[in-house]
UniProtKB/TrEMBL annotation:
Pfam families: PP-binding (PF00550). Coiled coil: none annotated. This is Acyl carrier protein. Gene3D superfamilies: ACP-like. PROSITE patterns: CARRIER (PS50075).
Length: 77
């Protein structure tokens, strides 16, 4: 799953080291980029986030994104 998420980050031209502990702020994300990330994740993984799951806590780090993705697409994706 991490590899698929990193692919999405790279499609947004995110540079540098991306790991589960990477902060979106440290990677240069702003609110618009986070919304682009949400859309790309939904398209790549074929699901839709519920509005209540699009929160700062769920999109603080790559690891927090992976945690919320498990709710939607399972661990083995």
């Amino acid at each position: 799953m991490l590899e698929k998420v990193i692919e999405v980050f790279r499609s947004l031209d995110v540079q540098g080291e991306i790991s589960e502990t990477s902060s979106l702020l440290d990677l240069g994300f702003n609110s618009l980029m986070i919304m682009e990330l949400v859309i790309l994740l939904e398209e790549k993984l074929s699901f839709h986030f519920k509005d209540e799951d699009i929160t700062g806590d769920n999109f603080q780090t790559v690891g927090s994104i992976l945690s919320i993705l498990e709710k939607y697409v399972g661990i083995g994706v």
